[in-house]
Amino acid sequence: MTTAALAAPVPAALPTSLVRALAEIVGKEHVLTDPNRLVVYESDGLTAYRAAPRAVVLPGSGEEVAAVVRLLHGEGIPVVPRGAGTGLSGGALPTPDGVVVGTARMNRILEVDVENRLARVQPGVINARLTEATRPHGLYYAPDPSSQSTCTLGGNVAENSGGPHCLKYGVTTRYVTGLTVVLAGGRMVRLGGAARGGEVPLDLVGLFVGSEGCFGIATEIEVRLLPVAEGVRTLLGIFETMEQAGHAVTAIMAAGLVPAAVEIVDQATILAVEASVYAGGYPTDAGAALVVEFDGTEAGLDAEADEAEACCRAAGAREVRRASDPTTRAALWNGRKKAFGAMGRIAPDLLVQDATVPRTRLPEVLAKITEIGERYRLNVANVFHAGDGNLHPNILFDRNDPDELERVERASKEIMTLCVEVGGTITGEHGVGVDKRGYMRLVNGPEEIATMAAVKRVFDPHGLFNPGKVLPDPDEDPA
Amino acid sequence: MTPPTSLADILPHEALATGGSRLGSTTGVLAPEAIVRPESTEEVAATLGWAAAAGVAVLPFFSGRRLGRRAFEGRLIFLVTDRLRGIEIYEPADLTLTARAGTPLAAVSSALAANRQWLPFDPPFVDDRSLGGLVATGESGPTAAAFGELRNHVLGATLVTGEGRVLRLGGRVVKNVAGFDLLKPVVGSRGRLGVITSVCLRAFPVPTEDRVLVLRADRVADLAAAASAIRTASLLPVSSVLISPADVLGAGAALLVRLQGARPAVDADQRTLEAHAGVTFDRASDMAATLRTARDHAASGPATLGVSVLPSRLAQALEAVADLLGDVPVAADTYLGKVRVAVRDAEPAAAHKLCERVQALGGALSVRVGDRADAATAELSAAASPPSPDEAALVAGLDRVFDPKGVLRPCRR
Fold first, then answer.
1. Largest Cα span, chain A
2. Residue B288: is it exposed, middle or buried by C-beta count within 10 angstroms (0-12/13-18/19+)?
3. What is the average pLDDT score of chain A?
4. What angle do CA A298, A128, A278 make, to 5 degrees?
5. CA pair distance B305, B130, nearest whole angstrom
6. A105-163: per-residue pLDDT in tens?
7. Which of B177, B336, B395 to mutate to test the interface with A (most CBs of A within 10 A)?
8. What secondary structure letter does DSSP report for B376?
């Protein structure tokens, strides 16, 4: 995060003739130019960055997206794609000269193919809605970002979103089998498709997923669904120290168990959640809480849960709670799932960090993050996907305090550098967006960055999709 | 343009194999002017840099046994990865392993097995392959039904582009979105984007119970209903493969369903499948041999056709194969809707008709011509479904980024 980026430039209004042409494509009510209505689009989930767009256009179909992009690109105007705006890296931050194209109206589930376990959806479909719609058929959509009740599948494709259950089931890219995308100049292209299997020369679908709106806009998404597991067992381990919880995770994974999710929250997070309306009954004097979940055939679950509980107790858990019914299970999850919401009420601003390290390096990295937080006099609360080493150190701060803001920035950079030094990376699931462009050179050399830029030009030769995101400025000093 | 140096100037003596090696017989009609066996990423980069400057094409491979017949006109060298050998980083508790591309998969598997871990990929002849070869072909095999395709488990790779630039893509953590995902198009690129010199893969714990269930019948068609019922049961087996003929299993055809997990769960899953499909399975007596059969069936021979359709269209695809090609060996992945067909003496006309029928079902046909195929069989290649013009244009764009001089064009097929 850079302080300079926080100032919101004032954009130039779009010419009236262009507004009229856009309205002809999508309907007058779906072209927003009134500054009061544009405020909502000034940032995404990373509210530290704000910039007003010149306009927001909300197409109702893939064809409308293509026509809008054709028109804007024809005028040399950049397009910033936007789903629900829940992203945490500023990926949907408007660029000063750009127009935001939002997919909110394209929210239809086009087809649920029960027999082939596939769904075809528009990009504005909310993640959780797809699972709601397919559950009656015994199917569900596996990737479950914490924002799943509001985030859209188009946004998930752009960010290659993860979620707690990605430990066992993998992230978004594993489930996307085909895409219809609108590329530069409004060209509509179909990529892949489950029926064609892998019989394509290069995996273009896999390349497009996670491109953060820099290659184009997905207007139709084909995803794989999974059968709903017969049973679930959830454990909540309460530990005196974070170190004990870390050892329990190592023991569970070493035992050859394959949990669906392994999540840890630290004491700062427990305190925040328990003080909020989301209180789940976690003991506030605990050093860490560990949520472990198994799913699958009912007959094997108790044995797996028993083994995981033994691992927790051997690591020093003072208490292990269990749930197999949905209500109790939701209560055990509350402390984890509501962590970000709860933190929102104890500080004006929250920087949700995101990095991944090899799992075995977690204990030392967590200890060093604590040390960094103390050194910069910052309140850092850790929530993380312990099973796959994906950390979310959350820094609580007040952006109106310039000194604190600077300390946040310096601490963030130290945390990122630390994660890279132990063999990790700067983002596991939130993406680079604008927030981590400055860290890209920590994990990518000049050749890799030049190649990424060249690959972007294959999709977007004139740099008119989401400029200023992901790739660092060519003349920027290495972070 | 004359090359700035000769290969002998930039590579150590050991990296330059002499002609007439064992590789000659495995690559059809190709005549390389040199065979290079680099020992490091730097030597691979030097070789490709030299080739780009000298206008020489490069065909990379490990054993060459799976390259198939291919023709090439112009100056050509072979780049053999067999000296890029060895496991670099293996931290069992992280469930990740990094090894050089020419490390035989068998060596990787035995290192993992010592820690009760495995790689859940079972493409044909998997024991024969190198790690880099596996990633370059991107083939996962039927276990992809439960574990997801190989592409999802390649965490990182070192790639030397057609110009000799070294790219370190991805990393060694299981979640990583630090920039565009250049790894995805590299997996399965068959060498056209560059030479892979090192790979980091995700490993998995070996399950306590691993069981293969067998259902026998006279003909494939007799098993279609059971295969379809199993596919729509409320659980996801590790794999489900239909093979014909199934001589080794003493039947005309067989359905092989693999289950893994804790023993009580596997027992329950077996009962669920049997109830759902109204069948009674046998247990495979020799599991390793049965798995090998399922994996390699219909994969060798002069040519192999790959049919891909939605699983619900599988029976129709198998019918089309029988109508047009007769009683040929087939192996069908009933979850992913992929059929492998071994053909011998097939008329190109029949293959073209099969392609039409498969495409009418919404699917695609691929063709692999074995290295010992005659010229007539090689003509079958023309029957493969082409990519769409839009996809082809994007692929050509990526070729220009990774290999602007066309050094790796022998890999573009």
1. 71
2. exposed
3. 93
4. 85
5. 23
6. 999 999 999 999 999 999 999 999 999 999 999 999 999 998 999 999 999 999 999 99
7. B177
8. H
The shortest CB-CB distance from A451 to any of B167, B232, B267 is to: B167
d(CA A144, CA B59): 42
Interface probe, candidates A139, A202, A470, chain B, greatest B C-beta count within 10 A: A202
Q: Which residues of A touch B184 (CB under 8 A)?
A: 173, 203, 205-207, 209
CA of A389, closest CA in chain B: separation in Å? 8
Question: What is the greatest pairwise CA distance in chain B?
Answer: 71
DSSP letters of B175-220? ---SS--THHHHTT-TTSS-EEEEEEEE-EEPPSEEEEEEEEESSH
**A348 phi, psi to nearest 5 deg:** -65, -35
Q: Tell me how far apart the alpha carbons of residues A171 and A440 are, in angstroms, rounded to a whole number.
A: 21
Q: Which residues contact A340 (CB under 8 A, 6 or more apart)?
A: A146, A350, A352, A383, A394
- Quote ipTM for the complex: 0.96
Query: In Å, how far are A90, B91, B264, B369 from B171, measured between CA atoms?
Result: 23, 14, 37, 35
Compute the average pLDDT of residues A298-326.
95
Question: Pick from B88, B108, B331: which is nearest to B198 by CA?
Answer: B88
Q: Give the pairing type, strands A99-102 and A79-82.
A: parallel
| Residue at token pair 């015994």 | A138
How far is residue B303's CA from residue B366's CA, in Å, rounded to a whole number?
Answer: 11
Of the candidates B144, B167, B146, the residue with the CA atom closest to the CA atom of residue B157: B167
Q: DSSP strand E in A10-61: where?
A: 31-32, 56-57
Whole-prediction pTM value?
Answer: 0.96
Return the percentage of chain A with pLDDT > 70, whole number: 97
Burial class (CB in 10 A: 0-12, 13-18, 19+), B22: exposed
Q: What's the token pair of residue A345?
A: 């009420």
CA distance B329 to A316: 57
Please determine, for residue B28, whether its predicted confidence score (pLDDT) is greater than 80: no
DSSP state of B295: H
| Nearest beta carbon to residue A206 from set B169, B185, B394 | B185
pLDDT of B2 above 70: no
SS3 B368: strand
Q: How far apart are CA B88 and CA B100, in angstroms?
A: 7
Q: Given pLDDT bands bounded at 50, 70 and 90, which one contains residue A462?
A: very high
Q: What is the mean pLDDT of residues B199-219?
A: 95
State the Cα–Cα distance between residues B283 and B266, nearest whole angstrom.
Answer: 12
Sheet holding A99-102: strands in order across?
Answer: A31-32, A56-57, A99-102, A79-82
If we measure between CA atoms, which residue out of B33, B27, B38, B26 comes closest to residue B76? B33
Q: What is the pLDDT of residues B382-396, one digit of tens each?
A: 999 999 999 999 999
Asked if A428 and B176 come within 8 Å (Cβ–Cβ), the reply is yes
Of A197, A253, A445, the CB nearest to B364: A197
pLDDT digits (tens, 9 = 90+) for A243-260: 899 999 989 998 989 999
In degrees rounded to 5, what are phi and psi of residue B307?
Answer: -105, 130
